[in-house]
Amino acid sequence: MSSPIQLSGIAWDHSRALPPLVATAQRYEETHQGVRINWQKRTLDDFGHAPIDVLAEKFDLIVIDHPWAGFCFEKKLVLDLAQVAPADVLSELKKNSVGPTFESYLYQDRLLALPIDAATPAPSWRPDLMERAKVQPPQTWVEAVALAQRKLAVIPGFNADLFLHFVMLVKSLGAEPCADQEKIAPRELMRQAVELLRELSAPMPRDIFTMNPIQVAERMTTTDDLAWNAFAYTYNNYARPGFANKQLCFGNLLSLKPGGPRLRSVLGGTGIAISANCENVTAAMDYALFAANGHTQKTIYVQAGGQPSHRAAWDDKFADQLCGGFFSGTRLTQEEAIVRPRYSGYVALQTDGGNALQEHLRDGCSLDATLEKLDQLYRESRKCGGKTFQTN
After folding, report:
1. Which of 103, 309, 376, 390 is the most buried (most CB within 10 A)?
2. What gap in Å lies between CA 85 and CA 293, rounded to an integer?
3. CA–CA gap between residue 279 and residue 145 (Å, rounded)
């Protein structure tokens, strides 16, 4: 008997990420006896920022997020899936991926990955603590600040998250982030965005600057000191009965002004890319399509803890009930999310720009110096890649 095809994959370390991939791989192996798929994991920070080139040498399947598109294609690290997957299947995925999830992986007509997971920053809260405080989830910025002043609110202030909050606010103030090759946005709008972040974060505990979205959710579900999170990348697991000590509710983003449009947060989520070094492309592509299809997404994938990108799951009443109303609660925010820049040097800007924002919000560095540093870091990031430039 011939040896089975061996595929290796790298995911990231959370119940939303690894278990659904292991579950889909297990089922795929059961129906494809000649294939074995081994998934490994890495930290959330490594997932977002560690170089992909090393992973592309070691793994066939890479769970990836869309800001890596420019870098990966410039360095020829992954396959263009538009040239590998059947066109009719890709058309179906494009039509049925929630919000701009599918489009986020399209870069200069090349497809970085097949979407399997959808997320964007949205509010979450502890219903019991909100009831105890006799408050409703804020719908406007003024209400959010008031809750923060009562020491009940939180945001993840980890460097990359902080930068993406800033990008969200720049967009909501009327600018297209990174559309200009010399500056992130008009200086006055950048100033307003940082001042809004300072107003909201100032009353919050200083350790928010060490917390990513997972740590915020864990803190909210294991202690009783924080009732409401204004915006963090969503993890439906914490809305599922029994997953955490206390259950969270999730909803849509607030508005800057009463009656105004909701904030539009910066799209997250993940897709499956195939390494350019993969020796079994047909099998890798077939498994990726299996993990991404609507039936798998609304059954095996979500039941194993995943947060699917396919509308079949977002429209499924059982999936919504399983996840404590997460899909119906955050649907509008997910649909309205914006796609962040994807040029080759962009990813480091999230970390470096977030560090600069921390130096202002946490340490008191001059706002003018911070704004200048942000634009300087942006210009430097633009020099790290090739000549092509596509922001979204």
Report:
1. 309
2. 13
3. 54
Residues paired with residue 124 on neighbouring β-strands, in sequence order: 229, 250
> What CA dihedral angle connects 373, 374, 380 and 383, to 10 degrees?
-160
Q: What ranges make up the beta strands (E) of the chain?
A: 5-12, 35-42, 61-64, 106-107, 110-111, 114-117, 121-125, 153-154, 228-233, 249-250, 270-274
Q: Round to whole Å and give the CA distance between 274 and 267.
A: 21
Largest distance between two CA atoms of the chain:
69
Which has the closest alpha carbon to 9: 67, 79, 64?
64
pLDDT 10s per residue in the chain (392 long)? Answer: 578 999 999 998 999 999 999 999 999 999 999 999 999 998 767 765 667 888 999 999 999 999 999 999 999 999 999 999 999 999 999 999 999 999 999 999 999 999 999 999 999 999 999 999 999 999 999 999 999 999 999 999 999 999 999 999 999 999 999 999 999 999 999 999 999 999 999 999 999 999 999 999 999 999 999 999 999 999 999 999 999 999 999 999 999 999 999 999 999 999 999 999 999 999 999 999 999 999 999 999 999 999 999 999 999 999 999 999 999 999 999 999 999 999 999 999 999 999 999 999 999 999 999 999 999 999 999 998 655 555 54
pTM for the model stands at 0.95
Q: Which of 136, 88, 34, 84 is nearest to 276 (CA)?
A: 84
Distances (CA, A) of 99 to 174, 215, 338: 20, 26, 9
- Using the structure block, give the residue that is written with the tokens 């993840």: 156
* Amino acid symbol at 1: M
Which helix (H) or strand (E) is 337 found in, with range?
none
> Helices 367-382 and 187-201: crossing angle, nearest 10°?
120
